[in-house]
Fold:
Amino acid sequence: MSVVKNIKDNSIRSKMKIAIVGAGGRTTTFLNYFSQHPSEGEVVGISDVIPEKAELLLKYYKINAQVFKDTEKMLDTVKPDAVIICTPDFAHVEPSVLALKQKIHVLCEKPMSTTLEDCDKIIEAAKKSSAIFYLGFNLRHGPVHATVHEVITSGRLGKITTIEANEYYYGGKTYFRRWNRFQKFGGGLWITKACHDFDLLNWMAGADPASVYATASLSHYKANPQGAEQCRHCQIQHECPDFFDVFTTQPSEWEQVWKEIRMTTEKNGGEPADLCLFNAKKDTFDNGIAVVNYKNDIRATYTVNVLASRSSRQMRVIGTDGMLEADMEHGSIEVIERHSGRKHTYDLREMIAGGHGGADDRMIKDFLHTCHLGKKPKCGWSEGRLAVEVALAARESCQRGSVVKL
Structure:
């Protein structure tokens, strides 16, 4: 039996007016949700520096909303109850502060930002505002990780000694043809990707981190002199498994729309849609390991690898009375008692449909519920800043080759 509690639709008492900043990949999660749950929220506006991208998304999801290039003008025009920040990571601070100053609730996609200075700017605005600042660490809401946390806090495993978190992300390779490949935009994979998992470790450990040691490498996606900067000009495209064809119609309507969005970005001065994963300039890595020591004598490891054959998050927790093994892709958790060897299995397969193992929809529903009740968010600015702090320490440790104390 799962410990996950679903929020009932009737707890969301009235439809909220929603504005979205940024028309990218994560924007689709929210548009899809509100297109399927129109009684809970109405998307009234989207702003993006390239408005055509927003228009393509709205057309696909059949949502009638106004499109803006300027976020401040959008907020003044549509007067939303809440705003969802889906810009690139480095650009979270300005719209968050702008909305909070206008007492508009904010759901900010992870990470909170790419620097502690920008995190502190958001915190200052949040403390002065009556509006809610909600950090989009969606994995806390997923059935698998929520159940893992419940097992840990129940005491069934005894005193926790170690936590292992592994992330295998086949699709993560596409970061190397997008803005995420540069630290100035996404903070590197330690922030743009690993902030999810550092937050999970902080949550599971239940204590402040004391130190971080990390190592990482760009082992595979290095420059290839035989290739070109773009797939369309590459002489070895037919033998490359990472080839992206910008001229062929994609196999599904959504894939075609997404290609058009990428091409629209390119036409407006952005990166080419078929930038070579190998020859694209980048200053991040494709695999890394971090070790986090916590102040309550728990040690945690995190491994991220975008070279894996499949995508999944796995976790192993060992305590003095038992151990737990979880797999988000399979929706499975197994608890093994230490001395007796007795096993208890959680089968969550029916609950993990949807983005991020069923986490996305639950997070959005919880955000709306939080706004209606005016309660403290499950994840707010303190959790967001701490995850960035750990991520920055991991990046610094890689650069220095030594332990970084927090």
Remarks:
- The chain has a mean pLDDT of 95.
- Residues 190 and 395 are 6 Å apart (CA to CA).
